[in-house]
């Protein structure tokens, strides 16, 4: 009995020492990752060019985050209203329909809370590239948010009216400046409940992984968090690194390449690899770049309103994303 007790106590001590060593290692890796991020170059560009239709983009953001849209909850009246409005915008811009029913791709989620929602649909359009042999560039932004909950509107201005308004602005730009690659514009539903909209792009075979060169996902672009914008994805595909490093020199905001490394490498630094719709593309073996800002106090709160938009920062971020697309389209 005494020998068994000593043996058990020894195992407990070893386990505690191992756990403490792991915590110490994570702390070291976290500090090293933060140093790596902060060592990346500061912006050298004073101001971004004005290529996008900024007044229209800002008006789109304000409308998507309005009380009328009621937080764009999937299956709620506000979500249906946003869906219909996006169809109108895609048509006005002149995108070619890419859904199963015109611009729409209706679907029904089959599990989890998402299965309770009726009327879910992606809104999909495309601009044909001048070189049809090239693979697709797929630009995604989820238009759903938390909607009405316990009598309060969760407006979702940053998350993710900002991404959708930027997607529309990019579509207007490329409609006037034809790209080499065919561009797919996907305003996807259901990101807040398991990314079902993006999953259905592949389940219903509107997209095949081998067709796609890159997914560019836009989710939360309009809040100035120390003028930092993250570009996530180069860890998984190092070939993206030179392009994103070039982009760092073309942006007036601080573009940080990171938030895509596993815990063993980055410690307790966030890993956003699975954080938004780009995760579905990653699971399909498609390269991705996700542009977004860190969480802020209004994240998933009713206070995420248009009034809290950092307008100058949002404009500069949107122009940075345009520069990224132009670089990706050139290679």
Please explain how this structure is put together:
With 331 residues, this protein is α/β, with parallel strands linked by helices. The chain has a single domain (54-330), classed as 3-Layer(aba) Sandwich (Aminopeptidase), CATH 3.40.630.10. It is 40% helix and 16% strand. It contains 9 helices and 11 strands. Helix 2 (54-64) packs antiparallel against helix 4. It starts with a helix and ends with a helix. The relative contact order is 0.17.
Summarize the structure.
With 331 residues, the chain is of the alpha/beta class. 40% of the residues lie in helices and 16% in strands. The N and C termini lie far apart (71 Å).
Question: Which features would summarize this protein structure in a list?
Answer:
M28_fam; nine-stranded mixed sheet; Aminopeptidase; two-stranded antiparallel ribbon; 11 strands; 16% strand; 331 residues; alpha/beta; Peptidase_M28; M20/M25/M40 family metallo-hydrolase
SSE order in H/E notation? HHHEEEEEEHEHEEHEHHEH
What distance lies between the first and last C-alpha atoms, to the nearest angstrom?
71 Å
Total individual domains: 1
> Largest sheet, if any?
9 strands, mixed
Number of strands: 11
Give the overall form: globular
Q: Gyration radius, to the nearest Å?
A: 22 Å
- Strand residue percentage: 15-25%
Q: Which architecture name does CATH use? A: 3-Layer(aba) Sandwich
Summarize the topology.
Layout: H1 2-38, H2 54-64, H3 77-93, E1 96-97, E2 104-106, E3 121-127, E4 136-142, E5 147-149, E6 152-154, H4 157-176, E7 183-188, H5 196-203, E8 212-218, E9 228-232, H6 241-248, E10 254-257, H7 263-266, H8 278-283, E11 288-292, H9 311-330
Parallel strand pairs: 4-7, 4-8, 8-11, 9-10
Antiparallel strand pairs: 1-3, 2-3, 3-7, 5-6, 9-11
Helix pairs in contact: 2-4
């Amino acid at each position: 009995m005494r020998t068994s007790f000593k043996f058990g106590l020894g195992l407990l001590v070893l386990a505690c020492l191992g756990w403490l060593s792991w915590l110490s290692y994570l702390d070291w890796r976290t500090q090293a990752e933060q140093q790596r991020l902060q060592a990346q170059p500061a912006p050298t560009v004073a101001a971004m060019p004005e290529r996008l239709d900024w007044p229209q983009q800002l008006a789109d953001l304000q409308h998507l985050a309005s009380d009328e849209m009621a937080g764009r909850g999937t299956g709620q009246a506000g979500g249906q209203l946003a869906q219909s409005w996006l169809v109108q915008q895609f048509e006005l811009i002149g995108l070619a329909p890419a859904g199963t029913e015109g611009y729409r791709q209706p679907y029904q989620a089959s599990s989890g809370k998402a299965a309770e929602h009726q009327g879910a649909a992606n809104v999909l359009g495309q601009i044909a590239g001048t070189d049809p042999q090239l693979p697709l560039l797929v630009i995604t932004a989820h238009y759903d948010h938390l909607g009405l909950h316990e009598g309060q509107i969760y407006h979702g201005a940053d998350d993710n009216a900002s991404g959708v308004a930027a997607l529309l602005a990019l579509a207007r730009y490329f409609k006037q400046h034809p790209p080499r690659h065919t561009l797919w514009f996907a305003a996807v539903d259901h990101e807040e409940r398991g990314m079902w909209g993006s999953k259905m792009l592949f389940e219903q075979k509107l997209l095949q992984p081998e067709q796609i060169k890159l997914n560019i996902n836009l989710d939360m672009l309009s809040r100035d968090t120390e003028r930092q914008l993250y570009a996530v994805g180069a860890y998984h595909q190092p070939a993206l690194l030179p392009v994103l490093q070039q982009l760092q020199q073309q942006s007036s905001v601080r573009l940080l390449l990171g938030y895509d490394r596993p815990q063993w490498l980055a410690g307790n630094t966030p890993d956003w690899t699975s954080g938004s719709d780009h995760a579905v593309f990653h699971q399909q073996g498609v390269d991705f770049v996700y542009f977004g800002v860190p969480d802020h106090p209004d994240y998933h709160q009713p206070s995420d309103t248009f009034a809290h938009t950092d307008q100058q920062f949002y404009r500069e971020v949107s122009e940075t994303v345009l520069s990224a697309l132009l670089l990706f389209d050139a290679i």
